[in-house]
Design a protein that fits this description.
The protein is of the alpha/beta class. It has 2 domains: 3-138 and 180-232, Decaprenyl diphosphate synthase-like (Undecaprenyl pyrophosphate synthetase); 140-172. Helix content is 47%, strand content 14%. The chain has helices at 17-23, 30-49, 63-66, 69-88, 90-94, 105-108, 111-124, 140-157, 165-171, 220-232, and strands at 9-13, 53-59, 97-102, 130-136, 182-185, 207-210. A 6-stranded parallel beta sheet has the order 3-4-2-1-5-6. It starts with 8 loop residues before the first strand and ends in a 7-residue tail after the last helix.
């Protein structure tokens, strides 16, 4: 691997948990439990490779409000357990990983899950060697609309405000994050797509990678395969 060509910001969209479970005759949310364990493996792989920023989509607002209640409750319990474990994880503190959780999660998560997230954010807030971002109850359209509303508020106070890319980025939930170099979506090679405008500002010049390997089977080996694919590409940025 040529580390000079490594992506600095990688997104993982973990698709296929429920299909993976269905293929094995398991209840759908069993795939989420296995996927949570896979997330631990991938985080360690990212740290081993020295990648600066990893973003992981934990579910859209619709995913967490419109799916069967039993499945949603399992996801909430996974969040609570995983974030509590992460707050104590050696690899987080040894590698000084700052954790962000982005989206409308305070509106819908139960109190225990919210407390676990807030504690994780608090204990990592001063770290600066790596960034780890979880997107929960997140839609890109919500983020853009929020930014526009904030610009309108600012414009009422500052009549000389200029609408610019910098002004918009400043008000995004993800405004402090670097651009996305590489977005990996699992379980989707036959249906390659983005969903609900995921990080639409930051993915303007991203490279995409779609694989039919479903998330519970997407481990270290598959991730490194994807990174090698990225390294072989030549990014042109519209030139």
């Amino acid at each position: 691997m040529n580390e000079k060509n490594f992506p600095q910001h990688v997104v993982i969209v973990p698709d296929g948990n429920r299909r993976w479970a269905k293929q094995r005759g398991l209840i759908p949310w069993r795939g989420h439990l296995v996927g949570a364990e896979k997330t631990k493996e991938l985080l360690q792989t990212v740290l081993d490779l020295g990648i600066y920023c990893l973003s992981w989509w934990g579910g859209s607002y619709e995913n967490l409000t419109k799916r069967p209640k039993a499945e949603i409750n399992v996801l909430f319990r996974i969040y609570e357990r995983y974030f509590r474990e992460l707050a104590k994880a050696k690899e987080i503190h040894q590698n000084q990983v700052k954790v962000n959780v982005i989206g409308r999660w305070p509106e819908i998560l139960p109190k225990k899950s919210i407390q676990a997230i807030k504690e994780l954010i608090k204990v990592t807030q001063n770290y600066n060697q790596h960034l780890l971002n979880f997107f929960i109850a997140y839609n890109g359209t919500d983020e853009i609309l929020y930014a526009i509303k904030e610009i309108l508020k600012e414009g009422r106070k500052n009549k000389n405000l200029k609408i610019s890319p910098e002004a918009l980025k400043k008000h995004l939930w993800t405004g402090d994050l670097p651009p996305v170099d590489f977005l990996i979506r699992t379980g989707s090679q036959d249906d390659p797509h983005n969903s609900v405008g995921f990080m639409m500002w930051h993915t303007a010049n991203s490279q995409y990678y779609f694989t039919n390997t479903m998330y519970p089977d997407f481990g270290r080996k598959e991730f490194i395969k994807a990174i090698n694919d990225y390294i072989r590409r030549q990014r042109r940025f519209g030139r």
